[in-house]
Amino acid sequence: MTHEPAQQIEASKPPSDPVFPRLVNEAEGTEQKLIGFIAYGLYHDAKREWISDFRSREKRYPHDEELREYERSWTASRLEGLKNAAVQLIAAYTDSVLSQAETQILRNALKGGVWRSVWCGLFGALLYTLIVIGLIVILARAGIDLVGLFERLTTP
What is the per-residue DSSP string for 102-132? Predict the structure, then answer.
């Protein structure tokens, strides 16, 4: 038993949504694909709203041919408008996230106060002093006279 007629029917059917490849191009970069996906979501929202209005007006859901006619009504300029709206949505979301992050960063920076900075500075100075003393002790045990070396460098 062969399935060729079924395969021919599948091959002759149009894609499930011809608008998707017009908005989302697989060859584009990640940023453009994200914009395309958001624009496609906006398109779907508009399509759902159109179907709802159609049902309210006609008291029935649109037929396949009416849906295809609606899909064909989306011109390149209308799709470009969806992409621009997607860019604006991303920009608004980014501003919102950055604003929240900036507030949190400033809060954390001011949270510690002056004394925390003072203690950090003192700890750093103490650690540096201990490292220098340890280095001097190691050089002295190795037989290097640092005081004599310093005197020779300072006298002309």
Answer: HHHHHHHHHHSHHHHHHHHHHHHHHHHHHHH
Rounded Cα distance between 74 and 79, Å, is 6
Q: Domain ranges for the chain, please list them.
A: 4-111, 113-156
Closest alpha carbon to 41 in 53, 31, 49, 30: 49
Measured CA to CA in angstroms, residue 88 lies from 13, 35, 54, 118 at distances of: 35, 10, 29, 45
Q: Report which DSSP code applies to 27.
A: T
What are the distances in angstroms from CA 109 to CA 28, 83, 95?
A: 40, 38, 21
Determine the average pLDDT of the residues in 93-104: 91
49-58 long-range contacts (CB < 8 A, ≥24 apart) are: none
Reading the block at residue 143, the tokens are: 């037989």
Residues belonging to the chain: 156
**Residues 28-58: pLDDT tens digits?**
888 899 999 999 999 999 999 999 999 999 9
Say if residue 12's pLDDT is above 70: no
Q: Give the Cα separation of 118 and 71 in Å (integer).
A: 66
Mean pLDDT computed over 142-148: 86
